[in-house]
């Protein structure tokens, strides 16, 4: 009996060992088969098999599988809504947000924050050294290098500011206010202004305020330099195919630190429908100015998210004074009274706009908060009838607009055209591009009415009502009137010049802001412009792209980062 019992225990122990071995082998084989076909394995998977030899001994086998996490993308693709016409950041007129590709390659003289305040950029700090505020010392940042390793000093600032002021440059009139630039040390420039100019500091961080470095420019020559620019910005130039794309790569030695995303592509996508398709298909990661009706749908897609970004832009219709049809102020005012801006911002823009009455938006320093130009269809009809128009005699005009440059720009004008029909006005729509607008403005070829998004990221009335409307402004439609030697049928040019004078010449800040408000109201009340709305920018981006939009409307790739896979 004893021998039989011992033999039985040995047989049972052998059986348990064989059985446990078979179970472990089967489980491991199964796990191997599962892992080999796994699309997205959990971070950790643990399988435990327990074999008991006796009541007091336990053997545990553990198999751990760790999945390799997907790496973050190293490229961001922007479906870009504007033409990229040149790599020259000084030569061409552009709204400030259209400068975004150049903002990636070049550094600005000064930086600006989200509250529209200015701080050090390539120019680290500045100070006026005279009581008249005409002599300005600019202190150059010492740790700045170009993409080719060349160091930056005072000579580069002098060279670039002088280039800004050359004839043929977009804002030569502004930068030409510096009549003398002295090198006071390797990193100090003394800038002498021709006269007191209240917003000189703002312009060092505003339009075309980019440093073009002296040595790389002179070494390559102008033509070759702008085919492959070498600057100091957060991204280096790689390739530009006009009408197609601009490729950039990170500049690891940028003075403010390298941006998180290594590669950037601005894909020129002028058609808003194509931009929608790009984001929906995942072939682009970020875009703006999409059809606002598409915004809720795109925002709800699993791989996308949407943002609404109020920006410092005013959408306005310029009323051109060199058309005889606008000789009667009643006609100009009737066109304005007939536009129901609340309806347009609600039904056409779907909330992506804020109605306004003057050239000044709510965040601008000279915003006249208590002034409203009313929608009044009956008054508009009376004014037109007093001017001699009616069912049998209708006014025929042309209105120019961009299409897809900003959200629903053409649709807004179509709504205005429908409203004008009720006051005996038949308007023909003509599509143009932003470069065409600038060309027509300086040559006197704008139509009766011309839509444009006026950017004033500084908030100062000089950069809104003065530069957009003053007869002496180098950026107003009066330039084209003078160039083409056309007639001012409004008869207001000289009077308007006097209204605008204190906006740019008054040294007392409060008095200058009051003059700015008065000038803005004057332009509206005399039918020289039809301000429509402050723009709210519709943005769609990949859900794993982290980015806070700027009120200036910039697309700043240096601030973007991926927080998950595409």
Which secondary structure elements does this structure contain, and how are they paired or packed?
Blueprint: H1 2-36, E1 44-54, E2 57-66, E3 75-80, H2 100-105, E4 110-112, E5 118-120, E6 123-128, E7 135-140, H3 154-164, H4 172-175, E8 178-185, E9 188-193, H5 200-203, H6 214-220, H7 222-227, E10 235-241, E11 245-250, E12 263-268, H8 272-281, E13 286-288, H9 295-299, E14 304-319, H10 329-337, H11 341-348, E15 353-355, H12 377-386, E16 395-401, H13 409-421, E17 425-431, H14 434-443, E18 449-455, H15 465-469, H16 478-483, H17 493-505, H18 509-525, E19 529-542, E20 545-546, E21 561-562
Parallel strand pairs: 3-12, 3-13, 16-17, 16-18
Antiparallel strand pairs: 1-2, 4-5, 6-7, 7-9, 8-9, 10-11, 11-12, 13-19, 14-18, 14-19, 15-19, 20-21
Helix pairs in contact: 10-12, 17-18
Task: Provide structural commentary.
With 566 residues, the chain is an alpha+beta fold. The chain folds into four domains: 65 residues, no CATH class; 129 residues, D-Maltodextrin-Binding Protein, domain 2 (3-Layer(aba) Sandwich), CATH 3.40.190; 113 residues, Alpha-Beta Complex (Dipeptide-binding Protein, domain 1); 228 residues, Dipeptide-binding Protein, Domain 3 (Dipeptide-binding Protein, domain 3, Roll), CATH 3.10.105.10. It contains 18 helices and 21 strands. Strands 3, 10, 11, 12, 13, 14, 15, 16, 17, 18 and 19 form an eleven-stranded mixed β-sheet that branches. A four-stranded antiparallel β-sheet has the order 6-7-9-8, with helices on one face. It has a two-stranded antiparallel ribbon with strand order 1-2. Helix 13 links the parallel strand 16 and strand 17. Helix 17 packs antiparallel against helix 18. The longest helix is centred in the first third of the chain and has 35 residues. The chain is globular and about 75 Å long. The relative contact order is 0.14. The N terminus is likely disordered.
